[in-house]
Specification:
By secondary structure, the chain is α/β, with parallel strands linked by helices. It contains 18 helices and 17 strands. It comes from Candidatus Gottesmanbacteria bacterium RIFCSPLOWO2_01_FULL_42_22.
Length: about 475
């Protein structure tokens, strides 16, 4: 079984968001489980190889907008499990992202490379990811290639609306072929919608999100299209790449965490030691941030993008504003919307011993925060999967999260975390107070929750097995 995994980002070469984490981890596990997999992505100007060797393997030409465009193919082996990675280079469309043309051209170049066998890798399945590869399923049909397509939606909000001229640029005749009659009537082309319509199978990054996006509330205009694919839409919960988070930071993590995913009994036997190290980490962070070094003051963190549309900044801000901050400590790490950064900075300015804000992307500090905090608050309005709740639990930090999307699938309420039902500051505050009250007055139950968080299995191995099951059904002709 050969799978070509098509993405727009792949660390360590180029990374912008969470899709990069998936593109690095999932293929690595799939190849370990016997899948012959390769990754393909654009060769932007910003791509960096460092000490990784790359090799130029081919130059070919791809017709786009009636012109022959030169495309160079480079190949490198990924440092994680040595899976092959192909990079497509073109100075017009792939050096930097051009909204209208980069993704359609990238998709066309992939198809031409496969048709010409320029990759020396002929896939049985192309695993498409998000809007950036949304035209691939249609192009596969147009070229009548014997290839199945699977589209994974990582975030339905990113849809990629472009001019319908893109179809003619791709050489697709709108009056015949695979374009549906009603698609011809639309004024714009929605790249993600095209992927959903024409993919053989659609997946999302959690089971709950797969159900949510079929409703008008969460469907962002595509719910009807998705309902039409019912029976071919599946939710597979993302995992986390465990090995990335097992490195010691100045000896702050206890040794048994290194193998805890495989040996939960070892965690139980060493829980008191772990809790003592967690307490030490908390004091170190409190000292570093200028907070009072007291264990009975709850230390709560928020780590994430300052995205006003998704991440729940409004209800988090209102809740913090309503608290007697002298009895609480908050660490806010993230960047994005500058207006919201300014609002949270106000807390930092007037309560410097209780609220710390850092408006940067700082992975090292994020890990230090996960290791040291009592709670992490995740008030997202919607959350396709979420990664930070898994990382937090990995380090024994209890999540307080909105009852939505992948947060529902990864957090068991009152077992390894807390979920609040309504998207309001009042609902968030009620559950937050419940959580800190439990920690202060029922440490036995709280420690049991930490144990449950530490032993939760969020490895990619589980997710990879579910993808393989879908791949096999695609290859067998079931879909």
């Amino acid at each position: 079984m050969k799978v070509l995994f098509a993405v727009w980002e792949l660390p360590p070469f180029f990374k912008v968001g969470g899709l990069g984490d998936v593109a690095r981890a999932l293929p690595a596990d799939l190849i370990m489980m016997g899948v012959d997999i390769a990754v393909v992505m654009p060769f932007y100007k910003a791509v960096r190889f460092g000490e990784i060797n790359k090799k130029h393997i081919r130059t070919f030409h791809c017709i786009y907008n009636g012109k022959e465009e030169k495309v160079d193919i480079y190949k490198a082996l990924h440092p994680l499990n040595n899976f092959p990675c192909f990079f497509l280079k073109n100075s017009i469309y792939l050096d930097v992202v051009i909204d209208q043309d980069t993704w359609p051209f990238f998709n066309k170049a992939i198809i031409e490379a496969i048709k010409g066998n320029f990759l020396s890798f002929t896939p049985d399945i192309i695993h498409c990811n998000d809007v950036h590869t949304g035209m691939l399923p249609l192009l596969i049909k147009e070229e009548k290639l014997p290839i199945k397509s699977l589209l994974t939606i990582h975030n339905l909000a990113h849809q990629g609306r472009v001019s319908k001229d893109v179809l003619s640029k791709l050489g697709i005749n709108q009056e015949k072929g695979s374009i549906l009659a009603w698609e011809r009537e639309t004024k714009q082309l929605n790249l993600l919608m095209e992927g959903i319509i024409h993919a053989d199978v659609v997946t999302t990054v959690s089971p709950t999100y797969a159900r949510e996006i079929m409703t008008e509330e969460y469907g962002i205009g595509l719910d009807e299209i998705l309902r039409g694919k019912e029976g071919r839409v599946f939710g597979i919960l993302n995992g986390i790449n465990i090995t990335r988070y097992l490195k010691h930071d100045s000896g702050k993590k206890c040794d048994f965490v290194r193998s805890r995913m495989d040996h939960p009994d070892q965690i139980a036997a060493n829980l008191s030691y772990y809790l003592s190290k967690k307490k030490e980490n908390k004091k170190l962070l409190q000292k570093k941030l200028g907070f009072e070094e007291k264990d009975d003051i709850p230390l709560t963190c928020f780590v994430g993008r300052f995205d006003a549309f998704q991440k729940g900044l409004d209800i988090l801000h209102r809740m913090i504003r309503n608290l007697d901050l002298e009895n609480h400590q908050f660490v806010i790490l993230g960047s994005g919307n500058v207006d919201w950064e300014a609002r949270f900075e106000w807390f930092n300015k007037f309560y410097p011993q209780n609220v710390y804000c850092n408006f940067t992307f700082n992975e090292g500090l994020a890990h230090e925060i996960y290791e040291s905090s009592d709670f992490i608050v995740i008030p997202s309005k919607f959350e396709p999967c979420g990664l930070i709740q898994m990382l937090a639990m990995f380090f024994g930090t209890i999540p307080i999260a909105h009852h939505t999307g992948g947060l529902i699938d990864s957090i068991k309420n009152n077992h390894n975390g807390f979920l609040f039902e309504k998207y309001t500051s009042e609902s968030l505050e009620h559950v937050y107070r419940k959580a800190i009250d439990l920690r202060l007055h029922d440490r036995k139950t709280y420690d049991v929750m930490i144990m449950a968080a530490l032993t939760a299995d969020f490895s990619w191995k589980k997710s990879a097995a579910e993808y393989i099951a879908l791949y096999e059904k695609l290859c067998s002709g079931e879909y």
